[in-house]
Fold:
Amino acid sequence: MTDDTTNTTEPQSDRSQGRKHVNPGRRSFLLGAGSGIAATALAATAASAARSAPHSTTPAAQVLPAVPFHGANQAGVYRPAAQQRSACFASFRVLSANQAELKALLQTLTAQGATLAAGVKTDAPVRADDLPAIAGGPPSNSGVLGDDVPADSFTMTVGLSNTIFSNPAWGLSAKKPRGLTEMTVFPNDSPDPAWTGGDLLLQLCADSADTIHYALREITKATRGQLALTWKLNGFHSAPRPVGTPRNLFGYRDGIVNPAQDENRVWITKDSGQPDWAVGGTFMVVRVIRMLVEFWDRVGLGEQDGMIGRHRANGAPLGQTKETDAPDYANDPDGQNVPLDAHIRMANPRTTATDASRLLRRGYNYDLGVDLNGNMQAGLIFTCFQQNIQEQFEATQLRLVDEPMTDYVEPFGGGYFIALPGVPAAGSGFLGEGLFT
Structure:
């Protein structure tokens, strides 16, 4: 759960309460199951009146910088360096009837993403004679963020699934990237169709939950009739406690090791064997993983540390003192410090043969309330980016099959996507433009 080079969890296998029973020692749970961004003149008038009212004593929200939307790659993969606190993973069915409509959809998404990333200042006064013409229409701004829309470190990452390339209506079969398939179901997984797949995925990230809510509403409003939301899940990224890497819902520091951006592991390159249009993109894997926190809380701390391979208190590998220390497997061949079946050891054995399977991850915690048994439905939205799904994510995941943590986690949703290349500069094109040339 703590090593960024791999998936942090593996599934739980008991399926009582109507689920298939595999191992009597395993625990059981039920799964729960083109509008503008700027405010209208009418909203600006209301804002002017609000400015004349007595000032609130509530402190203003922190103003956070904009993350540039444009670049060779989509910003939400590596930027910003400090992962935003809030996220939404929203999966859609694409309703475009033909390739031209699909192209228009991606153009709309590009415009929305660029505007939301920059933020909008709406402080212009309204002339009185403008009001009658607009008084009967809905505001173009929901008002969730007030009259001014802050940048709030917002990023939008757009991913396409294999279904985009298999639908004959869109005529893109010849453009399909190699290795983009339906999500593989691994041993112990419990896939739920309600939380799996989709044609197009949006990963929306910002430092405030209301910014994410606002952005999703703006995007769905602008794409009404083009996209149908099939599932969505909000996530949160905790502050470091007390310092260092943030913790997951098992209490362990999660995300300690990640490849640097200049390592040739994440971005699709010209020599990667993929179509030319995909250069600058990356493959995105999303796995929604329930963490059986009630059962985990009954396990001794020493056993927890052994399953993870790190000290919960400071994140250091067992036998080391700091979270940034590399585990010394060469001098621990029998697993006296880090057990041979510890998560971090199975996920990243740190051998020459397994080095190529390292990947970039940006995970988020989630909380969906309670299930029918009154147990918490909480866990991890595991997200990773890589050049090759089979050689990186799947190779890592296969090493983790039947690890001890499978008693306490249960993957049930997500999918495989290709995150599109970026748009180099304003006015230079749109996300996915290479698909249509």
Summary: DSSP finds ten helices and nine strands in the chain. Residues 99-118 form the longest helix (20 residues).
